[in-house]
Each structure stands twice: as C-alpha cells, then as structure tokens.
Automatic annotation (TrEMBL), chain B:
Protein known as: Sigma-70 family RNA polymerase sigma factor
Family matches, as InterPro entries: RNA_pol_sigma-70-like, RNA_pol_sigma-70_dom, RNA_pol_sigma70_r2, RNA_pol_sigma70_r4_t2, RNA_pol_sigma_r2, RNA_pol_sigma_r3/r4-like, WH-like_DNA-bd_sf
Organism: Pseudomonas synxantha
Record keywords, A-Z: Sigma factor, Transcription, Transcription regulation
GO molecular function, one term: sigma factor activity
Record domain RNA polymerase sigma factor 70 region 4 type: where: 111-163
Pfam family for this entry, one: Sigma70_r4_2
Length: 316, 171
C-alpha cells in the first residue's frame, strides 16, 4: 500500500473536522473540492482519512458509548490491584509501542480460564488449587512462602514447613503455618473460610479489629474497614474444589451469580424468581445442565438469547 | 520509516526452532490452558512475521514474550469489552439483540475504537466520542465541555491523527 504524504494527511484531517464536525458553508465546500482535486496524492490522503470513520457509522450510539465506558471501568477496577513486579512487563509493552497498561492477572505466574480449575504444587509440599478465572504468583525463599492472589479464588493446603505461609490479597495479608483454607475476592472485600488449623488475618485497615485469628469452621470478610463475620448465603465454600457447586437453601440470584463465575457471558434472573430457594449439589463441568436441572426443580424458565446471554424467569 | 524491513523468513524459522516450545510453556503457565497457549504461540510468530524490526534480535525471548503478552492483553480487553457490550444491550431493552454475526462485527469495531481511546487523554477522548458517536458539532462540544471551539478542533485533530497512525502505520 502506498504511503500518504503526512502533510496531506494532516490537511485531510483538518478538512474532515471542518466538513463533518462543523456546519460547512458553500464556500468551504467549494474550497474543499478544489483541494481534493489538486492531485491523486490529495485524493489518497482524503480517502484514507474518510474511511477511518467506517467503524463509527455502523455502531448504535448509546449501546456503544455504554459498552466502551463499561469496559474501561471494568479494566481500571482491576488495575486497582496493580502490584510491584509488573514493571518488566510494562517496559516490554512500551517497547512494542503499545499503550496498554499491563493487567495483573495476565502477568501472573499461574492462571485459570473461566470454567477451569487447577492444582499447583509448591516445592515445600504445599498445594494450591485455583478456582475458575483465578490468578496467583508464588514466591518461595528462605524466610517465607508467599502466594499473591491477583484474581479469583484459591484453596490452600499448606505443607509441613517452619517458614510462615503468607497469602497476599488486595485487602490484606493472611499468615499461617499448617492449614487448609479458601480465599476469594468478592466485590465487598476478601472472603476467608478456614477448615483446619488457624489463619491470622491482617486486613489492610487502621481499624482496631483489623487483626484476628480465624479458626476452623469460621468464615470472615475483610476489607479496608476491618474484619467481620460473613454469614453463609447457603453456598458450601469447599465444594468447587471437588468440581461441584453445592447449595443449601440458597437464594436463586445468589446461586446464579455463583454459577456465573464458571461460564462466559451474562447470566441473569428476573426479580420475580430471585428469591426462590435452591438446594442441591451439581456438577460444574456442564453449567448449562445445571441450569436445566435447577429450572426443572423450581419450575422456572431458562431463555438463551445467545450462549452468552441467558435469562432465568418465571414460567408463563 | 522506509529503512525498516521485516526479519527474513529464515531468521524467523531459526527463532521458531529455538524458542517455540519455550514460548508455549511460558504461555501455558500463564493462560493455564495448553491448547490456548499453543494458539497464542502460533499467533505470536505470525505477528513476528509482520513486524518491522531493523536488526537481529538481541534478546529473542524477551521480545517473543512481550508480543505474547500483548496478545493476551488484547484478548483480555476484548473479553471485558464483550461483557460490557452485553451488559449495555441489557441496559437498553429497546435495542434489538443483534445476530451473532452482527455482534462480532460490532465487537471488532468496538475493539478498534477501544484501542484508540486508550491512547487519548480524557478530554480528547470525550470530545472525540461526542463528535463521532453522538454526532455533535465542534461548537456544541465546546459548550458541553466548557472549552473553546478551537480547543475542541485541536482535540479532534489529535484524535484523528492517533486514529490514522493506528490504522495505517502498522501496514
């Protein structure tokens, strides 16, 4: 493809602004016609500048604006998790001339896709299981063992070792020696549930309650305003580790929000059915099948507008 | 930059032999999926075939992993964009749900625009969207943003130049 003269490209851009983004009068239209017919190079420059607008002409304005803003917000929320150690990645990108901010989860040592689970064995004998759409970094050195939770949820089984085992999340630190626990990021903070041993929580907060020892059977949520007990919503926090979702008298909207973590696209329910209760254990392997079974037991409708957009509502 | 020339194919062949399986491993650890990693590794070399680079690579693995990283980020952004788009559709119930094919076309356009917007300063971005999506004139945008019309025209010029670079510089 021939290269357009940069000076002419600049002129073409100025014309574009004058004609398309201003109210053009006859005089300027005539002047533009004259400019355009100066040479073939002028026409090439104009043609290239004019076709740049193709992307916009076919887009529905409101939806597009909403989507673009939405995507930026989603991405910058995650950038709030920005951590050290990303600078190398940033340099690599800048060098490629791409203006993207590196995203922590993508730079992580280990990562799972949506719907995937995975065990990672550490060489101290500890094992960490990543739930769907999760990411971690691991640092082992002479003084400590550290798992950095960048996104999602992990189950930790610490091995016998004298070094303290730390987990860093966006809301603070957890410290332990020998235990089994799960940690997950939630919208309001980090959720911790302990099964064995004990875990010390150091929330990233100045509140007096920011340090606590959490014992087996306990479940807490911590964030910048401290640590507080987190009553169960009916979900068995350990079930995913075995590849199932297990609910006891759980609200349907909560259940669907949880199920939505294991599939792409949107999963919504109408107000009318949100408060229905779900009990049972379902295989996460096939989330469509789970929806089908739940719909049968509650006598509700599941509508697929596309595989990415599923709505659950009352049966008409 | 006419002095640039692509790496020749033999050099890429050597790179492929020496680093392809390393790259696949690297990607596999990060994506957590072997098949996905294989696709991305392949895609990385395709990108390399099209890339312009003047001299031989000093640190091929650093270079390859930075391409691979940007591919992962592209995919990540695209996924976020897709989710945001679906949410937007749900938000405007009067808008008809597009066919799968139209949806992909719209997402392609949105992805290109998103990449562009990422390079613009907030005011420039806003002015550009008001002009392109909402169809406002420079005078209307000036009023809306509380700046002069000349400023709006300068902002739009910046945005269009960035648009041009993105669209044509990589050819």
């Amino acid at each position: 493809m021939p290269n357009a003269d940069p000076r002419l490209v600049d002129q073409a851009i100025q014309w574009m602004i004058k004609l398309r983004f201003n109210t053009a009068d006859d005089a300027s239209t005539a002047a533009f016609e004259q400019w355009l017919h100066t040479s073939a190079a002028h026409q090439l420059a104009w043609q290239r500048v004019a076709t740049m607008n193709d992307d916009f002409t076919q887009l529905p304005a409101h939806v597009s604006r909403h989507a673009l803003d939405g995507a930026r917000q989603r991405i910058s929320r995650r950038e709030g998790l920005k951590l050290l150690g990303l600078l190398a990645g940033a340099a690599g990108l800048a060098w490629l001339g791409r203006d993207y901010t590196p995203l922590p989860a993508l730079m992580a040592d280990y990562r799972t896709a949506t719907g995937e689970r995975r065990w990672v064995a550490l060489n101290d004998g500890s094992k960490v299981q990543l739930n769907s759409a999760s990411a971690i970094d691991i640092t082992l050195n002479a003084e400590r063992r550290l798992v950095n939770l960048r996104q999602g949820e992990v189950l930790v089984n610490t091995g016998a070792d004298n070094r303290p085992f730390w987990v860093h999340t966006r809301d603070g630190y957890l410290r332990t020696l020998g235990t089994r626990f799960v940690v997950r990021e939630e919208a309001q903070g980090t959720l911790l549930a302990v099964q064995q041993g004990a875990v010390a929580v150091y929330a990233d907060s100045h509140d007096a309650s920011a340090r606590q020892m959490i014992k087996p059977g306990e479940q807490v949520l911590f964030n910048r305003s401290g640590i507080r007990p987190s009553p169960t919503n009916g979900l068995d926090p350990w079930a995913w580790s075995d590849g199932v979702i297990s609910a006891h008298n759980m609200r349907l909207d909560d259940f669907l929000a949880e199920l939505g973590r294991y599939r792409n696209g949107l999963l919504r329910c109408s107000e009318a059915v949100a408060g229905l209760r779900v009990s049972g254990t379902y295989q996460l392997e096939d989330t469509d099948q789970v929806l089908k079974l739940v719909a049968q037991s509650l006598s509700i409708n599941v509508t697929y507008r596309s595989p990415y957009w599923v709505t659950v509502s009352a049966r008409v | 930059m006419s002095s640039d020339h692509p790496l020749d194919h033999a050099a890429i062949g050597q790179l492929y032999q020496a680093h392809h399986s390393w790259l696949r491993g690297w990607l596999s650890r990060r994506t957590g999926c072997r098949e996905h990693a294989a696709d991305l590794a392949q895609e990385t070399f395709v990108r390399l075939l099209n890339a312009r680079k003047q001299q031989t690579l000093q640190q091929p693995r650093a270079y390859l992993s930075s391409i691979a990283r940007s591919l992962m980020i592209d995919q990540y952004r695209r996924r976020e964009l897709e989710r945001a788009y679906l949410e937007s559709l749900a938000h405007f119930p009067q808008v008809e749900v597009p066919s799968e094919e139209t949806r992909l076309l719209i997402l392609d356009s949105l992805a290109r625009i998103d990449r562009l917007l990422d390079q613009l300063k907030p005011r420039v971005r806003e002015a550009f969207l008001l002009a392109q999506l909402d169809g406002l004139t420079c005078a209307q945008i000036a009023l809306r943003l509380g700046v002069s019309k000349a400023t709006v025209e300068r902002d739009l010029s910046k945005a269009l130049h960035a648009c041009y670079r993105l669209r044509y510089a990589e050819c």
